[in-house]
Amino acid sequence: MRRTALFVAAVIFAGTFAHVALAQQVDTRSIPAKSKYNLQSFAGKRPLTRAERTNFTETSHYDDVIVFIDSLKKLGAKIATGSIGKTGEGRDLPYVIASRPLITTPAEARRLGRPVAYIQANIHAGEVEGKEAMQSLLRDLLFDKKKNVLDSVVLIVQPIYNADGNEKWAPQAKNRGAQLGPEMVGTRQNASATNLNRDYVAATAPETRASLAMLNEWTPDLFMDLHTTDGSVHGYALTYSPSLTPTAVNVLPYTAKTMLPVIRHRMLARDGFEVQDYGDFSRTRTGTPGGAPGGALGGGGFGRGGGRAAGPSLEQIIADSIPTSGWVFSTYEPFPRYGSNYYGLRNRISILSEAFSHDPFDRRVASTYDFVSEILSYLAEHKKEIIALGKEGDAKVASWAKNPGSSPPLALESRMDTTRIEDVRVEVVTPLTDSSQREPGMGMRKRTGVIKLVRMPVMASFTPTLTSTLPYAYAFDAKTAAAIVPILKIHGITVEQVDAPGSVTAQSFAVDTVMDRGRSETPRTMKDVGGRWNEPAARTLPAGSYIVRAGQPFGLLAFYLLEPQSDDGLAQWSYYDNILAPHDQFPVVRVTKPATIRTHVVRN
To answer: For the whole model, what pTM was predicted?
Structure first.
C-alpha cells in the first residue's frame, strides 16, 4: 500500500542508534508452526480458494470469488449474501454475513448485543492476500463444529472491493513490482484510475459510495481494511495501524493503547508472527528543524517537497554494521481520505492490516488470516466494552454539541510524533551476485533472514497543530447546499432545512487565500484554504437555508468535513468550486450557541 512519506516536525533523540543488538538467524520464508493457517490446514476441505488449489501460484479472479461464496451455500453454510453495489464496469460487489445464529439486520444485532465486524479486502487489487485469507477464514469458521467467534460476533466480509481492478491482469512486475508473487495480479486503481483508498472523503467512485452506504446501514463496531506493504525490508510479517487522525478522540486511545498491544503479543505467542505498527524506515533531513524525516528509504517513499532522501538505505547501513543516528520507523498520513483513518471519525474502531510484501504469498495469506482471527477473538472477548465504546463516543459528541466549546480540542491539522522508542527488527540484506535469483522489489540485493534489533523512535501517532472545538451546528445557504448536501448525505450526515427565520449566534470565516494543490489519485482537485475566524455575532438564518447539527451520531465527521481549516475536508476536496473565493466569507458558518430553529430533515 504505497503512501507519500511525510516531512514532519518531531523530536529525534541524539544517539538513537547507540544500541544495535547481535544478529539472529530466523526463518522469514516459511509459515510458523504455530500459525492457524498452513499448507496442511486446508487439506481435504471444501471449497478451496484459487490460491490453495494452485499451491499459491495464482490468486482468485472475480468469478472465483463468486463461485466460492456460492459453494459455501451449496455445502450448507448458513450465511446471508448480497451486493453492496456495483463497480464502474457493472460488477456486483459481494458481501457475506456470517454468525450463529444467523443475524441479517443491524437491529437484530443490537437487540442480541452482538458487535458487528466489517472486513474489507482487495481495495488495491494487486494486494491479494486479504482476498484469499478472508475466503479461507469464512470457510473455516462456518464449518467449524466447535464454538468460535461466530457465536459472539456478526461478521460481514467484503472480499473483493476493487473488483474491476482485480480483473486488469498483468504480470506482477508491471502491476505490483515489489511483491513476492503471485505472478499475475490486478491493478492498484479501479477501472476509472481512481485509488479507492484515497476516496473516502471525496467519494467519487461508485465503489466508495457503495461502501459508505453499507457502513451507514450497519455502523460496524469494527472496520478492517486489508492491504500489503511495498516498503522497507523490516523484520515483521505484518504491520498494522489504528485510525491515525487524532480527531478520532473517542476510539483512538483504546485501539492504539489497549487493544493493539494485546494483539501484537498474541500474534507472536499464539501464531508465531512478529508484527509491529505500520511504518517505513526514514531518516532526518539535514538542516530540517526538529529533525523531520524525509522519504522512506527502501520503500519508494517521496516527501511533499519532492525527491528521495539521499544516502544508503538503512538496510545497507545495518548490513555494513555502521549504523548512524537520525533514523526512525515512521507511519503514513493521518488523512481521512484513507478508509481506516476515516472510520475512526465515526466513533468506532478501525484497523489497517498490511502483510509484508517481500514475504512469499502463502506466508502473507497466513499472517493476514491469523491477524484477522486474533482481532475477531478480541472483539468476541470484549464485545460489551467495545459496543459501549461506540455508544459512549456518540453520547460525548451529543453532549459537546449541546454545550458548544466543551469538547476537547479537536484536531484540524497535525504532525507526526514520536510514539515510543524501542528495538525495531531490521533484516540484513546483502549484494546479489546471481541475477537469476533476483526477487521482485529487491534489485541486486537479497534478504538473508538475519534480523538485527536497532533502537530507534517508532513514529506511529500524530499530535494536533491546529484545533477547534465542536460548535452547536453549521449553517449555509441554498447555493452552498446544492454543492455539499449530496456528499454530506453520502456520508450519512443528517442535514436540515430551515422552515422559518431563526436568530442565532454565528461565527464566519474570512478567507485570505485559496490555493490549488493538484490531484490526489482521484478525479477531484485539492485546495488549501487560508484565513481567520471572526468573532461570533448575532444573525438571522433565513427560511430555506440549511443547518447540520453537530450533536448527531456522525457529528465528529461533520466537524471534520465542514471546517474550512481541516486538512482533508470538503473545502480541501474542492466541493465549493464557484462559491469559495479569496477575500470573501467562507460559505459555511459555525453556530456557536444553542438555538431554537424550526426545521425539517432533508430526505433527498
So the answer is: 0.93
> What is the spatial distance between Cα 356 and Cα 77, in angstroms, rounded to a whole number?
32
Q: ∠339-572-589 over CA atoms, to 5°?
A: 110
Q: What gap in Å lies between CA 495 and CA 599, rounded to an integer?
A: 10
The three three-digit cell numbers of residue 33, written as one number: 508452526
Cβ neighbors of 482 (< 8 A, separation 6 or more) are: none
Over residues 294-323, the pLDDT tens digits come to 433 333 332 323 333 344 555 554 444 334
Range of the domain at 514: 471-601
Smallest Cα–Cα separation from 417: which of 455, 464, 454, 456? 464
Residue from 268, 217, 213 nearest 238 by CA: 268
Residue 504 lies in a domain: yes
- CA count, 13 A, side-chain hemisphere, 19: 11
Give yes or no: residues 372 and 494 share one domain: no
Domain membership flag for residue 238: yes
In 3D, which of 432, 293, 332 has the Cα closest to residue 1?
Answer: 332
547's grid cell:
443547518
Q: Is the peptide bond before 101 cis (omega within 30 degrees of 0)?
A: yes
Distance linking the first and last C-alpha atoms of the chain:
36
Task: Single out the residue of 160, 171, 151, 134 nearest to residue 63, CA to CA.
Answer: 160
Q: Of 227, 49, 195, 194, give the one whose Cα is nearest residue 122.
A: 227
Asked if 172 and 184 touch (Cβ cutoff 8 Å), the reply is: yes
Phi-psi region of 219 (alpha: psi -120 to 50; beta: other; left: phi over 0): left
The residue with cell 551476485 is: 433
Distance (Å, rounded) from C-alpha 221 to C-alpha 43?
34
In the block, which residue shows the cell 506466508?
A: 363
pLDDT in tens, 13-24: 333 343 666 789
Residue 210 shares a structural domain with residue 97: yes
Which DSSP category does 341 fall into?
H
CA distances from 531 to 558, 584, 600 (A): 20, 10, 32
- Three cell numbers, residue 22: 547481535
Beta bridge partners of 399: none
Position 109: which residue type?
A
Can you read off the three cell numbers belonging to residue 91? 460488477
For 54-106, the pLDDT digits (tens) are 999 999 999 999 999 999 999 999 999 999 999 999 999 999 999 999 999 99
360 and 480 both lie in a single domain: no
Single out the residue in 360, 387, 414 at which a domain terminates.
Answer: 387
540's enclosing H/E stretch is strand 537-541
**Amino acid sitting at position 233:** V
Vertex 436, ends 434 and 441: CA angle to 5°?
95
Using CA atoms, how far apart are residues 242 and 253, in angstroms rounded to an integer? 9
Please tell me the total number of residues recorded for the chain in this structure.
Answer: 604
Q: For residue 429, give the C-alpha cell.
A: 540484506
- 260 and 268 in contact (C-beta within 8 Å)? no
Beta-strand (E) ranges in 229-356? 238-242, 275-277, 280-283, 327-330, 349-355
